[in-house]
Amino acid sequence: AQLRGRKPVLFLGAGGRLTAGGQTITSDKSEAGASANLLEGGNFESGKLSLPITAPYGDTDIGVFDRNPVKASLHDGRYCLSLKMKGERGFIGFPQNLYVDTTKTYRAKASYICPTNVVVSVGGYASDGKNSNLPGPKGGTWQWSLDIKGSPDAWQAAESTIGPAGSGTAFTWPAGTLSTGMGIWLSGKAGATVYLDDLVFEPAKTP
Prior knowledge:
This protein is mostly beta strands. 0% of the residues lie in helices and 49% in strands.
């Protein structure tokens, strides 16, 4: 079960009932009308910053761009996320826990317009509820990431997978993982603007 904002969402292997946030929901199915995307609001089609976003270092101007920033490139939807760098480095984060079942595979995706003079990484760490930066199998801090390459003239998509050992995914969950998150790191020329849309973190079938 998850509480997304004020909306309780129920995931069960059988029927049941959940009361949270002053609401009660019931289900006779394994999933009750929930969006597969754990990062709710990642398509920005409300026209507002409808999901929590922070720029803790004040190094990035964050906004929602109306219409398509590259009209010659087809793109679904009307709005997208706009990130303008104030300096040569920037970071924004989504302060919400994405709870996972480490026996299953998850897919991370993003659409983007990115200048060639900017390097962007979308990724997240793993937490066991106490340690927010679990180590990887070879030491160091474990992290999943999306590879975003310069594409100033057309919308492109980046995708990666995270799953249990032996699942064939790009990244393997470290032992004890309860949740992950999503953040965006930018490096490049001050004044450059990156556009992101359709940010997704969702359960997926094991390859």
